[in-house]
Design brief:
Blueprint: E1 5-9, H1 18-26, H2 31-41, E2 52-58, E3 61-70, E4 78-86, H3 95-107, E5 113-116, H4 121-129, E6 133-134, E7 142-145
Parallel strand pairs: 4-5
Antiparallel strand pairs: 1-2, 2-3, 3-4, 5-7, 6-7
């Protein structure tokens, strides 16, 4: 386990994301490139009320990223976890868990629920292991209810 994982706000078009984009692309995932393109165009900057985008750092080096948006597939007070990616060298060290928990806690006052969509079996198992439930709702594969009045959650 790393000594210290830091989760810090990050601009979604930061040049720090270049290594993450390269590795994601090599693994067949285009969503990090899409994240950067959408941020540069202004389409999605994770800057609406309740939204946030962060990087996960170990020893000052960016090893992962992820964000939380307003879910466009529902008209309820729902957040959507997006663009979570951890570099392979830092997986299975608790980085993704800390990142997801941080993102949700930064937005928990705005949302009653957080949803996500994944087709990746490893991600599916990860999200279920940290408390997300599978769903058949349109636009999502997993969701987690947030406690009303709680400013922090523990996954």
């Amino acid at each position: 386990m790393p000594e210290k994982i830091e989760i810090l706000p990050l601009e979604p078009d930061s040049e720090l994301l270049d290594e993450i984009a390269v590795e994601a692309r090599a693994e067949g995932y285009a969503f990090v490139d899409r994240l950067i393109d959408e941020a540069k165009s202004g389409e999605n900057r994770f800057d609406r009320k309740g939204e946030n985008f962060c990087g996960a750092f170990i020893d000052g080096a960016l090893v992962g990223c992820g964000g939380l948006n307003i879910d466009p597939y529902t008209d309820r007070k729902v957040g959507r976890l997006r663009h979570v990616f951890i570099l392979s060298r830092s997986r299975r060290m608790g980085v993704a868990h800390e990142l997801v928990q941080h993102l949700i806690n930064r937005s928990s006052a705005e949302f009653s629920e957080v949803r996500l969509r994944t087709s990746d079996q490893k991600a599916d198992k990860f999200y279920e292991a940290i408390g997300f439930n599978r769903t058949t709702e349109e636009g999502a594969t997993h969701k987690i209810q947030l406690s009303k009045g709680s400013s922090t959650i523990t996954l």
